[in-house]
Amino acid sequence: MLTFIGLGLYDERSVTVEGREALRAADRVFAEFYTSKLVGTDVVDLEASHDIDIEVRPRESVERDPSTILDAAADGDVAFCTAGDTMISTTHTDLRLRAEERGIDTRVIHGVTAQSAASSLTGLQNYRFGKATTLPFPYAHGGGDVPESVIETIETNRERGLHTVVYLDIKVGTGPTGLDPDHEEYMTADTAAELLAEGWEDELAVVVARAGSPTAVVAADRLSALAGRDFGDPLHLLVIPGDLHHVESDALAGLAGAPDELLDE
């Protein structure tokens, strides 16, 4: 059996009760944290909290040669866990399909995602979100501006009146000079806002910082204004609103401090 477990958004307590029970019942527990991570804890605390041993796998191992995970799942109960939801944004459908092809039973235990949290914290209605996008560090795509694919996603959503979640780049194990096992870098919302204000338009945006934590922050303003603020520790994301229902406008004003003049535009 191979069980995919989403650990939630912040620390060792963010996993569901069902996920916690599956972790403790597993013969072996594997994890990856290269796409996202629990910034409120670390592997040592996760292991201590759930009384388990965790084998953290690098990206290449999971994507190109997951034989260790699959062999273990063929002979016993294996848990494979990630931050957030294990099948949303951090997608491991390929691993699940490989397991099914080998006759290994699989199941998914979901965790809270950054996108669902963004809707909940901002008051923007979840069914009014369009396609999400990721804003990379300039060095990661070989340019100093905002990639055209990011702009195209935002503008296509806005033409349909839809909101856009902009995930912010994470670099773990690789940096500006290439592979670096000690490198760990998280794009902050102020950096992202500055890039978008200069490379796209200076429009209304919403910062969501540390969703799921006791110190979550939600702030709405022009991108240029957000670029001048410090939103603290990661993880951060941006939301670019589309057309706003009056309840959504009220939510951005009351929950995120959006200026009235931006909501009236």
UniProtKB/TrEMBL annotation:
GO terms for molecular function: diphthine synthase activity. Its EC number is 2.1.1.98. Pathway: Protein modification; peptidyl-diphthamide biosynthesis. It comes from the Archaea. S-adenosyl-L-methionine binds at residues 9, 85, 88, 113-114, 168, 211, 236. Gene3D superfamilies: Cobalt-precorrin-4 Transmethylase, Domain 1, Methyltransferase, Cobalt-precorrin-4 Transmethylase, Domain 2. The keyword Transferase applies. Residues 1-226 form the Tetrapyrrole methylase domain. GO terms for biological process: methylation; protein histidyl modification to diphthamide. InterPro entries: 4pyrrol_Mease (IPR000878), 4pyrrol_Methylase_sf (IPR035996), 4pyrrole_Mease_sub1 (IPR014777), 4pyrrole_Mease_sub2 (IPR014776), Dphthn_synthase (IPR004551). Keywords: Methyltransferase, S-adenosyl-L-methionine, Transferase. Pfam families: TP_methylase (PF00590). SUPFAM superfamilies: Tetrapyrrole methylase. It catalyses: 2-[(3S)-amino-3-carboxypropyl]-L-histidyl-[translation elongation factor 2] + 3 S-adenosyl-L-methionine = diphthine-[translation elongation factor 2] + 3 S-adenosyl-L-homocysteine + 3 H(+). S-adenosyl-L-methionine-dependent methyltransferase that catalyzes the trimethylation of the amino group of the modified target histidine residue in translation elongation factor 2 (EF-2), to form an intermediate called diphthine. The three successive methylation reactions represent the second step of diphthamide biosynthesis. Homodimer. Belongs to the diphthine synthase family. This is Diphthine synthase.
